[in-house]
Amino acid sequence: MLSSPMMRQPGASHRLEIPVQAVIVILAAFLLFWELTEKDLWQDEAATAVLAVRMLKYGRPMAYDGVNLLTIDMQDSDDEATLNRRTADPKAAIDYYVAQGNFKADTTWKWQPWGLFAIAAVGIKLLGQTTLGARLPFALAGLATVPLLYRLVRQQFGSFPMAALSALLLVSNSYWILHARQCRYYSVSSLFLVLTLIAYARWQWGGKSAAALIATAWCWFQVDYGTVLPVLAVLFLEALLADRRAYWRTVTAGAILAATLAPFVYFYDLLHRGSDQDATWLDRFRQNLFNTNEYVVPVLVLLAAIFLLTRNWKSLPAGERRLVAVGCALLVAFTLWIPTVTVYSFVRYVIVAAPVGAMLTAWALVRLLERRRQLVWPAAAVLIFTPWLSVPLRAVARPPEWWEGSVWYRAELKDLRAEIFGHQPDPNRLVIDWLRKNAAPSDEILINYEDYPLMYYLPNPIRGGIATFRVEDDAKTPPRFAILRHSVDFVDWPIFNRELARYQWQPVPLKAPDIMWGNNPDPMGNDDPRAAPNLYIARRVESGGH
């Protein structure tokens, strides 16, 4: 019999409850806000921030502001003649990316929903076009997720240990913390995931209407339509299976939500999306399975939760068993959905599900050790500090080449310390600070990658990037500065080399590490900048032949 007086009384007080909640929230705040502005925005963050700035200026996110262009940042394998036309002609480049579906004919952005940029715009409007202005709203969303997860588990499972452990496991998830500190959708999507589960529980077994669920899911779609869709599929399928007598109630709620989302599905052109995917579906599935097993929840824990759920289905309260079933189904859905719709299975695609992983882990631990409660917290410590339960699956979902983990301890804790407390040299900040002092606002800057941070922090015309925009557009003004990352292998190097060969360049004495990314929270982006060579930054010599 899996029940106890303490666990079956959701309203039961516990003398340590408020202090424990306070300590966990304070810990979360410390990890989310400490040195939040120590590194400048990296490429993906800056894309969000630049579009937010343009939303403030034009009323909508514009891919092109008449000077600088943003695209979806994916390399295209075109023939040389096509590439040559659009590297020298801005209009040809814009027409090309309109045809590719990056943005609309008037360059209005449509690749991500606008709610993401609206959130960033609020911070930038209040705090200026700064690192803090861009990141703070998302860090706050991450912080709000922690107590809301506690509340969800406490109300639905009626267990203080489960609630406290869920929140603690989330806060101790290194890559969830690092992603939640970013000016991107990650933390907001995690927040809406928890809010959606709260609203779903209130609707299904709390006696409330579906209005809160519809409103929450609609708002989530406006921030991250890629993640909300599989979640909604799982929730409405569960609702239909759990109570077939309420068939029309469920169908009506789903129809209302679908009708409110349909105009945005059309506007964002979601039915005609497509891009070249990396490797095979099976390869992406294994990569995503590895990421889930290492950074969201060990598959062994997920299997234990499914075993406990099926074995004790009749003895568990209806709300508890349904929420656990939903959590298990969501993680299974993510393992299938992500490799199907994405180009590559990055950790960021699955890390938004970390609150569900934390909830299921806490539930399984407390349930398994219900008669030996003194072992719950030592077992939790093992999960927090070691990957031991993740190791068995590595034989099936093998670690990728970039992975530098261990079988003895969680290497990501080292990454967390290095990123938040390590004060490592940031190539973006070093370059941007140098350009602020040495470049006139009208100087054109040629750069092969991490071009979006320059657009956010500097007033200069920026040419290049993965899109090779205006790399060879020298009819009026040649580039004044060149910044090249030789660590980047996903740009059209012949085009950049050809442009460099046209002029004479003088390297500048700036020691900025040549690493692929700046403050990238993904584990594949954690190159040690202290061991990297210097990136190439040079000033064009005026007598160089133009």
Structural description of this entry:
The structure is a single chain. The chain is mainly α and 546 residues long. The protein folds into 2 domains: 17-36 and 133-421, no CATH class; 63-102 and 424-546, no CATH class. 55% of the residues lie in helices and 3% in strands. The protein is built from 22 helices and 5 strands. It has helices at residues 17-33, 43-58, 80-88, 90-100, 115-127, 131-157, 160-171, 174-180, 186-204, 211-221, 225-242, 247-267, 281-295, 299-311, 318-341, 347-351, 354-368, 376-385, 411-421, 427-438, 451-457, 493-501, and strands spanning 445-447, 462-464, 481-484, 505-507, 536-540. It has a 5-stranded mixed sheet, with helices on one face. Strand 1 (445-447), helix 21 (451-457) and strand 2 form a beta-alpha-beta unit. The chain is globular and about 85 Å long. The model is unreliable at 1-12 (pLDDT under 50).
Percent in helix: 55-70%
Whole-number mean pLDDT: 91
For the largest beta-sheet, the strand count, sense and barrel status come to: 5 strands, mixed
The tally of structural domains comes to: 2
Provide the low-confidence segments as ranges.
Answer: 1-12
Quick take:
With 546 residues, this protein is mainly alpha-helical. The protein is 55% helix and 3% strand.
List its traits.
single chain, 546 residues, mainly alpha, five-stranded mixed sheet, 22 helices, 5 strands, 55% helix, globular, disordered N terminus
Question: How is this fold's topology laid out?
Answer:
Elements: H1 17-33, H2 43-58, H3 80-88, H4 90-100, H5 115-127, H6 131-157, H7 160-171, H8 174-180, H9 186-204, H10 211-221, H11 225-242, H12 247-267, H13 281-295, H14 299-311, H15 318-341, H16 347-351, H17 354-368, H18 376-385, H19 411-421, H20 427-438, E1 445-447, H21 451-457, E2 462-464, E3 481-484, H22 493-501, E4 505-507, E5 536-540
Parallel strand pairs: 1-2, 1-3
Antiparallel strand pairs: 3-5, 4-5
Helix pairs in contact: 1-6, 1-7, 2-5, 2-21, 3-4, 5-6, 6-7, 6-9, 7-17, 8-19, 9-10, 9-11, 10-12, 11-15, 13-15, 14-15, 14-17, 15-17
